Amino acid sequence: MRNTDCLARGGNAAAKTLAVIPVYTEAFSIVCSPRHPFAQRRRVRWAELVDAGWALPVQGTPLRQLMDGIFVRNGVLRPRAVVECSGYEQTRHVVSHSALVGVLPRPLALHGKAHGELALLRAKLDGEFAPISLLYRKEVDQPPLVLGFAGIVRDLARSMRLAVVDAQTASMPSRRL
């Protein structure tokens, strides 16, 4: 893909039939093993990060696309995936036991740091990450329990001190039961 000049993507027809209830936004961190040379540095430049070997999400996934975009916005090429990981635990394990760099949800990165498994290179990425959301079909009248469930999920996320998306700005339907 590094030689691609242009990409075009059509709309997703299925997306037009779905309603979205945003719940919370997830912060992500760039991590490496505590034994990695980057771990001892106060600041690692984007140009250095792009030259590192990476354990990245699978090509085409939303997080991979967002990571590619963050690098481009910072004036460098996309990172090189030495290993593609299909899950966060797999990424955590690969990064903590290798010389690769990766990206993880901030709570998982902080947990790894607290246990001496990971070092955080960039504690919080400034990206336009889509919120974790609940989806349901628009054309089917949803019972009140569906919206009640959405409210419970949002309340749980709030109790976990996650960055809950404001219901007013997200246009979340009322949760009256």
UniProtKB/TrEMBL annotation:
Q: Name one Pfam family in it.
A: LysR_substrate
Checking InterPro entries in the record gives: HTH-type_LysR_regulators, LysR_subst-bd
What are the LysR substrate-binding domain coordinates in residue numbering? Answer: 5-156
GO biological process terms on file = regulation of DNA-templated transcription
Top-level taxon of origin = Bacteria
Protein name per Swiss-Prot or TrEMBL: LysR substrate-binding domain-containing protein
Q: Which GO terms describe its cellular component?
A: cytosol
